[in-house]
Amino acid sequence: MDMKEKIEALKARFNADLEAAKNSDALEKLRVAYLGKKGSVTELLKGLKDVSGEEKRELGQHINSLKKQVEEQLAGQVEKLKAAEQDRLIASAEQYDVSLPIAAPQGSYHPITVVQRQLEEIFSSMGFTIEDYPEIVTDYECFEAVNVPKDHPARDMQDTFWLDNGQLLKTQTSAAQNAIMRKYGAPLRAIFPGRCFRNEATDASHENTFFQMEGMMIDKNISISNLIYFMKTMLSEVFERDIQVRLRPGFFPFVEPGFELDISCLICGGEGCPTCKHSGWLELCPCGMIHPNVLREGGIDPDEYTGFAFGLGLTRLAMMKYGIKDIRDLNSGNLKALSQFKHE
Amino acid sequence: MLISMNWIRDFVNLDGLELEPLIRRFTLSTAEVEDIFHMGEGLRDVVAGKILSVEKHPDSKKLHLLKVDGGDKIYDVVCGAPNVREGMLVPFVKEGGMVSGQEIHCATIAGYESHGMCCSEQELGISADHSGLMELPADAPVGVDITRLYAIRDIVFEVDNKSLTNRPDLWGHYGIAREFAALTGRPLKPLETVELAAFDGLDPIDIQVLDKELCYRYSGLKVRNITKKVSPVDMRIRLFYCGSRAINLLADLTNYLMLEMGQPMHAFDCAKVDSIEVRRFDSPFTFQTLDGQERKIDENTLMICSKGQPVAVAGIMGGLESEIEDGTDSLLLESANFDAVSVRRSAARLGMRTDASMRYEKTLDPEMTVPAIGRFMKLLLEIDPGAEVISRLTDVYVRHYPPVTLTFDKAYVDRYTGIAISDEQILTTLRSLGFGAEQSGSQFTVQVPTWRATKDVTIKADIIEEITRIYGYDNFLISTTVSPLAPRKRSPQNKTDNFAKDILVQRYHLHEVHSYIWADGKKSRAVGLPVEDNVKLVSPQSPDNETLRTNMGPTLLAVLQENRAFANDFGVFEIGRVCEGTDHDGAAIEKKVLGVALFSRTRSERELYFQLIELFSTLGKELKGTAFRFANCAPTHAFQHPRNTAQVLLDGEALGWLCTLHPAVAGKLDRRGVAVCAQLDMDRFAELAPQPLAYREPSRFPGIDVDLSLLLPEGVTYADLAPAWQAVDPALLADVGMVDLFFQNGQKSLTLRFAFSSADRTLSREEVQPVVDGILENLTRLGASLRA
User: Fold this and answer.
1) Which residue has the higher pLDDT, A215 or A20?
2) What is the pTM of this model?
């Protein structure tokens, strides 16, 4: 048999062997048998040394072509087997039930925190400093420094939680005004959320412990016109819609003039409905131009600076936002109620 | 307070104006109107009817069969009123007419048709009297509409009293009328009064103000020969519409004056009281006020006396003894001014806040007492011309308020308002409100009227309010502030609170709660805890809530207990305030703390306890880049476990504590669950400066981990072992961590992993082994041994 016939015979045998090889082990054996150091193809190549000239070149091409064919076919078969194995793994794999009720543990923020943070973000974006203040304060902080006269009813026993050491639980966030003015001086933009206390009977809409958020803006030439503009802008952001505001005279010792601020009713938009008692307006918060005495007491010259202040009822805002009907739920620690506020 | 527009129109002409929009304007410029009532609207075809005949109903004791002349025809009417009689003129609703908003139809009553109805005052809505038919005067024209006979139709509005607290001038119709005059630009008519100087020739009354501190002014006048007893219908209607009750002419007149001018007055029966002393008493006694109550009068209460006998509580209520009775025909009229705070406090002490005291506590204008007497006499003489003044006006004016003059320039108004209000508008507004206002160049000089000068208007900012409220805030052009750009400082407290909440909620799935700053005795008892002594509330709402809490533990343990049914495994936290007693000045030591409490029926107490340590460690690392240390300490609160209470330490300072529960408390909390709690001082924590992050190039060389499994004798802690590797170069020993911990045969088995690494070379086992041997040697000295 000459070389050519040997090559053809080997090719035929390889095709038959490949056909018979059904797994990767058999394929590996086949590779060794044909392409290994003593493999049939390798042997053929070795046999070339006895041939010469033109014939050697021609035969060499034939054998190399055979070697390439064997290599390719082997590799192709390996790939095929791998694919078959993967198909088998896929077919036998468990398909997971993604509809199972998988527990996703979640904590919860107190609703006051949620609302407070939303407000803090709004005020931060407008350049306001956020301040914190104690709950136990002195008569000076709570009353005298903010122009509440000595004989004002708020300073009587019945409305205020006085302590047996002569201090009191702050009745209003305004108790922080003086310290904040003294800390930063003018110009000043600050909000100070905090807990306030009133000695009154509790029911679904009254609590003795509740949250307010007070704000101040002090600078040269701050005017009533600025106050109205600011409140409208800020409240539109808070309620995420265009809010109409209106001011009515209101008396608070720390401001002059003082206002009660109403907003267009959130339910009916001003048309009149039971929520706004058909007036189209909801009373929302007190505000006003900071009283000159309060500025002076805070170390700020009222002839040079003016400013406005406002007090938002955080507790009320949270109740409005989430439709909480009983104010007592907020301090109840009842997780059936509170755990619902899982995200912001 | 209820305001009658008919009454207002006595003083300002509002003809041609729509009243409701005007009243709404009042809300925006003066004080909040809570409600508007249309009086007399429920009446239609109610006329003066003459009862021509009265026949007894054959089958009824109460009913009568009447023939009533309605002016247009004669009506058959069945009537049950007791005072019905022939010839009487009564308000009569014709069939088809309306009363109290109800249409009256022909009805068959006890077998007889009734074609109308005779009315009581209550049915007309003009008083509460339903004792019988209202009797009209004999000269009333038959058939005339009742609303033409009397001022039944009226618009009455209710002003929120709270919004009037700082406006003593608005506690009567005349003051409110002044506001309407200013709002409409129409003139305010002067009050018609009697010229009291006419009586100067008569004897004065013996009035002695012995307490010159609490009585500012006391004016009096004596009158006799008063024969009329009943007030005119129109006056009674106004009183009724404004929430008062008609009693008798003299009492009604004092009430009418109070509602009109805001000046409380008192009429003493002159037969019982003919001289006055105003004083306090040195010792307490009881006094019967005219509501029949026995009142305890103490040494702080100002009293009106006559010949040494108390006859009235000054500014609050008269005495029963000197009350005006039906037979009274002479009176001593009091028109006085008392100290506002004293009246408020006395009224609160006595538990009787009356219409008079409510007004006095607003600091009334003492200038009002004399005009009020002049006005009283004007009205009295119109009703009862035979009344005779028998004293001169006696006026003891003890304390005057100083006149208030304010000056400011136009630039001040412009700066404060931010809009342009003209000079003319400023002057007109102020003058319409009774201020004296003059302008010289850009300078304004304003004389505050006495009725605004007792406390209300004292500084120039108050003038801004007067100008702007009448100008109308709705008319303001609004504009943004113009301020220099400045960076915002975020306080470390706010930042720390918010980040801590995020970690606790998002990473540890805790629930945030709020509670009270005082300890809750009832809830504490439920978990077997006493309330720790601390600063107390002077007037707590319940004795159980009188003491401020010293720490967050009992609060949160109570929350756990109350929520046992919520879940088998949950945790809560609160960032709130506690009070750690007082400092040497007596000031409360308030602290803002984070309290955490965990509860579980599925995990062990040890797991929960170590969860707390992890949680606090995470807070320390995430917020401040700092590592807390934990060390056992003696318990300081009853709920803390004597063996498992630990301090949270940083640089030797205790920032908080954590604990498992004392068995006495644990047993009460829940039988199947376990709980732990902890507290961190958030003030101190927020103050800590965050450790700067020190970046190190990552080592390109692999390190070597060496695990050592150690057996520890009883009582030896990890912290006891730490000195064993203290001397090793931290550049070589990068970290020591715990792999596992278990107990075997009563011994603690702890596996530690020592991570060695180098920044500049691959470490070899040979290089590390001597270091490990050194550590082992040290560990052995400390009592640990290698596990076989």
Assistant:
1) A215
2) 0.87
